[in-house]
Amino acid sequence: MIILICGYSASGKSYVARFVSKKLKYKIVYTSDILKQFTTNKTQISIKTKMNKGWYERSNLIELRKNDFSFDKNLDKYLLSLVNKNTNLILDSSTLPYLLKKKKGVIKIWLNATKKVRVDRMSKRDVMTYNEALKHLNKKDNFNITHYRAIYGFDFGKDLSVFDYVLDTTNLNMQEVFECTLAFIKNKL
Asked: How many domains does the chain have?
């Protein structure tokens, strides 16, 4: 089974993916780390990834990606090949749920939270002020929405019909988010 965890920035994607991978003993791929490898011109991309807390928000990748769709196209081509070659895999991907909306053997989960909660989370996670986090979050959310529409034609974060499970994490602590997500997944396995 392939499990895809999706959501806006600071919705809890990477933390949930890590928790679920440990509980189910699935391999985890942090797609932001793969993107980081692609953008640093690595010749050998490693599937052994790590969670990169907040690196993207402090990078200039939005500017690079805005004018060059090849980063996204190459990343998604690589991720699609991983999904097609592997089982028992969890990815925290923004695009794969939309690109694989009809593929069997894939569980697609969207984590939602209010902007205020996500800004609070980002400011704590990345050690920045609320206003700095709000600025980064708005920039990234707006970029993702327009960028994915331009590349693939889907409405990121607006069209949730491709997801098997949508969980609002706004009023849940991390343990409750983990338990709800894991219960849903176990029911589908």
From this structure: 1
